[in-house]
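Section 3.1 - Work completed
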Amino acid sequence: MDKSINSNSQFKKNLHSFLSKSEIEILEKINKKFIKKIIIQFSNFLKKNIKLNFYTINKDTYTNDDRNLEFLYCNSIKILPLEQESFIFFSSNLLSVFIDFLFGGNSTFVNNIDIKRNMTYTENRVNKKIIKLIIDAYCSSCRSFFSLDIEFVKCQIINLKKHTIYPNNFFITNFFNFSCNGIKIFLSILLPIEIIKQKSSKKINSTDKNIYSEKKFLKNNVSVKNIYDVKLDIVVELIVSPIFRDNFNKLSEGDILSLKNPKKIIAFIEKKPIFLGEHKIFNNQSIVFLEEFIIDNLKK
């Protein structure tokens, strides 16, 4: 299944120059746990087959081989309690592959990222969801060895020829190469070497202040214990367009009403508005693109 770092003697030699044998073993155990967890998370998220091609551990690199790469998605994260900045990098095709699969495609079309443009709204939303899955999976994989909190800060597109990892900090690069329905994607999780050296013992939960935590929502709002696979009926309605009462009274069968925003919708659960969205047709399927949660009602 997975290829251990022990199969690569050069990587192992490099690691032994700054990590002890026991520290390398801890990293490998964490990464193997993470691989199992994230494959399940990604598979459930995309409803696609995800498998590991290989993984490596190195020092102060973006990936396992930076020479043939130009652009990457760079997610800045904060490692607590050290309050130190670190990074999670995505391959240039990862977001476009995920977005295409999520909207019913087969990823035959893949966007090429451009350093000159900003990330789209959809890219940002999907990126935050993926980062949350990664943070949760990695932090839970570390708990048997040390406690860790990772906080998402921002995401941007970087040019590897111009971007430099901070030279005054030393990072462990955990590189994971996956196949998603046969399409290769990768991600790298960089950790400050102090994490491995210090093995902080404080119990901290992974958080992202920019992402609403489903676990926190359930803990604070659901009082019935041991409820699983609860199905909720979502009613989707077009956002109401105003009409004068006199005009309404004159309506008869066959009349046509114009809508101000024909694509905009609002979704209800148990008669409470939950989120705003946009109705679209994609691959001959009717879909709703979620744009914004109505947080006040989500918490009730």
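Second construct:
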Amino acid sequence: MWDGGINGDPEHHVSIISRNMADVASWAQGSDRRNQDPEGSEVNEFAVWEQCWNRLDGVFRQSAEVFREANPALWFQTGWRSTAKFPFDAWLELKRVEDPARIEDIVVFVSFSWEAGRYRGEVDIATGEGAVLADGPAAELAVDPAEWPLQMERYGAEVLLLLEDHRLMLRDALC
């Protein structure tokens, strides 16, 4: 399941909502998934995760385009999903060439889980087989969901730095 564009083409956008309506609907309506903002109105966390995704997706696409400059045949897709335990998983899949039979060469995976009353995030760079090549910085989100998009933008900058720090390794794997 993914939500993104094929090769960065928004015309191929597939909505997570249409792909997994039952899970999303129950998640978005669950009382444990809504918080009160400071003015007392309800905040739908799923809608906030969508805002976070919009910010992180830009980081993923920017990174993919850098590698596409060195390898015009590069294929990529971005996506995200939400479950009760992992309310925000996002990824960037990269292949040297577009070949449906080929496993991804590189996957950048950002995951936020609910632990001890807080959302904790991690990022790693791995092969398509799951071998972790690099672990990135961890993050914790504030209690107030209204702060998450800005925090995700900052975390996206850290993800971008992780990719930059491993640029040579990634270039060797993708070009």
